[in-house]
Automatic annotation (TrEMBL):
It holds the Pfam family MMR_HSR1. Its cofactor is Mg(2+). The keyword Cell inner membrane does not apply. PANTHER family: ENGB-TYPE G DOMAIN-CONTAINING PROTEIN, MSS1/TRME-RELATED GTP-BINDING PROTEIN. This is Probable GTP-binding protein EngB. Keywords: Cell cycle, Cell division, GTP-binding, Magnesium, Metal-binding, Nucleotide-binding, Septation. One of its GO terms (biological process) is division septum assembly.
Length: 197
């Protein structure tokens, strides 16, 4: 799929004010600093569509972008800020989980993880929750350019070893880099496949 047009629609903290669920939607989520904004900008070939930031955790908003007038790209707020209290974090994850589990037109969630990191507990618990609730997701490894091919394969093998402890089947996995655009086409083709289904 080629992205011809990407338009910012609305940003808000209230799920009920999000756009009407009148088109297929795909969400992106991950820990803060995982490279989510950079990936959205790389996918849409717009440098400033999603805001990349060096001060994570400031805005916890749900952003909607309309792509090719066909589908919504939903940029969900990042999780895992050290600065935020446990209570606030739980409240925030409650809001995000509520959104993901009730949004009727949400067809897939891309869960981003930094390819350099060992599997992290909050990513694993989030995926566990998705699986237990039958919510479709893919794991998207980000920043692949920061590792050589060999090291990247090792990190993915390690991720799979950890997932294997609780999962019978692996979710689909994509390896990406916003710097080199590695995996961008695969991710967009994945969306197209679901759209055409
Ligand atoms: P977000 O908080 O998840 O939206 O993360 P950002 O997109 O703001 O990225 C966090 C930092 O990682 C920034 O300094 C980005 O330049 C850097 N970054 C993001 N994606 C990549 C990538 O694919 N390759 C490299 N080398 N750096 C990246």
């Amino acid at each position: 799929m080629k992205i011809k047009e990407a338009v910012f629609v609305v940003s808000n903290s209230d799920a009920s004010k999000c756009p009407a669920p009148d088109r297929p939607e795909y969400a992106f989520i991950g820990r803060s600093n995982v490279g989510k904004s950079s990936l959205i900008n790389a996918l849409t070939k717009q440098n400033k569509l999603a805001k990349t930031s060096s001060t994570p955790g400031k805005t916890q908003l749900i952003n909607h972008f309309l792509i090719n007038d066909e589908w919504y790209l939903c940029d969900l707020p990042g999780y895992g800020y050290a600065q935020v209290s446990k209570t606030e974090r739980a409240k925030f994850m409650g809001m995000v989980k509520n959104y993901i589990s009730t949004r009727q037109n949400l067809l897939n969630t891309f869960v981003l993880v930094d390819i350099r990191h060992e599997p992290l507990q909050n990513d694993l618990s989030f995926m566990q929750w998705m699986g237990e609730n039958g919510l479709p997701f893919c794991i998207v490894f980000t920043k692949a350019d920061k590792l050589g091919q060999g090291k990247a394969s090792k990190m993915i093998a390690q991720y799979k070893r950890v997932l294997k402890q609780t999962w019978e089947e692996f979710p689909p996995m994509l390896i990406t880099s916003s710097e080199t655009r590695q995996g961008c086409k695969d991710l967009l083709d994945y969306i197209q496949q679901i759209n055409e289904f």
